[in-house]
Write the structure tokens for this entry.
Amino acid sequence: MADAKLEIIFDGEVPGLSHHRLSLAHFGKSLPALIATIRRIATNFATNAADPAEPRDRGRWTNIARQLDVEISGISRGSAGFESVLSFTPPLGEPPRLFNDIATAVAMEFLDSVESESKGILRNGTVRNFLRTLPSGLTKQTYRFVNGSVKREVVIGEMALDELPPELPHLAEIIGLIVGVGFEPGRSEVRIRQDDGHVQNLAATTAEVETAWNLRNISVKALYVDNGVSGRLLRLEDAQAPAFPTDQQSINKHIFEHWRDLLNRLAK
């Protein structure tokens, strides 16, 4: 198995860099994030390298990825950075053919993802997280993959990290107990505590709040619209009632009946 040499150099107004030193106080979060990133990329490569007929046991591939390590082999001369080796030790009992040049493949994917993410092009969430852990004040970052000579180099200045778009609204269902309600003129809402202790706050109409009040002593189930940040109650009833319809026709019927007045006003 061939190891891969990775060199990372930082420049900027971060304490220590002007003296060619790497401050653990400022880069302390970045090094664990780097190994987590490398191993996540390795997990993906190992999974994709498996025979499609084999079960995709995620835990197995994660354990294999832990065999990949980042070993600091030296300090870059005349700069604030380090030279490292991505070393891989194949676990006993695993087919060696799965891991040919995995360190090289991981190093190349890491550099490609660093370049994309630094430009705001979403490619790899763990690489994006690594870049976010870097201290402010960096003006230049250089990443090199070396194999005898420099095979790939990525140089970035100011980063433009992007964010994933907010979660699209979707229907969700929960079961729990009514632990509180809110009335106008304040926020009209229903609060439901699930079995795991999580309390879901759902915006609701006055009629839905009254329904929740009447069901406060029994287990209930709620159908609501979840946008990842907040929820809007659509239906609330006894948990023992028949299951909510899940076919698209029934869902559409319920939505149009619930929002008929508003849809009619919007159509005019």
About this structure: The chain is about 30% helix and 30% strand. The beta strands are 4-12, 68-75, 80-88, 138-147, 149-156, 170-182, 189-194, 199-203, 219-226, 231-238.
